[in-house]
Amino acid sequence: MNPRRKKRMFAVLGIIFGLGSAIGLTLYALQENINLFYTPSELINGKGENYEMPFVGQKLRIGGMVVPGSVKRDETSLDVEFKLIDTGPMVTIRYHGILPDLFREGQGIVAQGTLVEPDVIEAFEVLAKHDEEYMPAEIAEAVKGIKHEKPKYNLNNEN
Fold first, then answer.
1. Dihedrals φ, ψ of 81, to 5°?
2. pLDDT given at position 14
3. DSSP 30-88
4. What is the mean pLDDT of the segment spanning 115-126?
5. Tell me: the pLDDT tens digits for 128-145?
């Protein structure tokens, strides 16, 4: 092989290796910033056909209804704790900050945060729906086909 072809071959191999490394590092960096959407039932029971469970420390989004009577506000700080439910188990959300004006008990919300225990999320953002007709696309897809029934247990009961 003559020196000119050898030089071209090393240049092409170097470009392919550099491009592959850049793509791999980009995908690795983006892996930490992916926020998967869960409902309270999916968080507790697992998501998908394989019932994959999120791991403690994972960033995620969760949507559901605020359980009436579950909102507990700290008198000395902006800490708020409330329970979220869909058609199954309840999940506890902890939030430090000012809640949206439309936030209230019995209201649908989406919280974004980190899983700190299997059924507790430390939220850094809470979004409330803006009118009676609106439902985020992820929640609409998640509850599509689910028959809305009254939960089998008392919502005021600490479960």
1. -130, 135
2. 94
3. HHTT--EEE-HHHHHH-BTTTTBPPPTT-EEEEEEEEPTT--EE-SSSSEEEEEEESSS
4. 92
5. 866 555 566 666 766 665
pLDDT at 159: 47
Question: Containing H/E element for 114?
Answer: strand 108-117
d(CA 75, CA 12): 65
pTM over cut 0.85:
no
As to burial, measured by CB atoms within 10 angstroms (0-12 exposed, 13-18 middle, 19+ buried), residue 67 is buried
Residue 3 tokens, joined: 């020196």
Closest CA to 57 of 112, 111, 116: 116
Q: Mention every residue, 6+ apart, whose C-beta is less than 8 A from residue 62.
A: 37, 38, 39, 40, 43, 84, 91, 93, 110, 111, 113, 121
Structure tokens at 86: 């869909």
pLDDT tens digits for 15-40? 999 999 999 988 887 766 666 788 88
What pLDDT is attached to residue 116?
93
Q: What residue has token string 């090393």?
A: 10
- The pair of structure tokens assigned to 32 is 């930490």
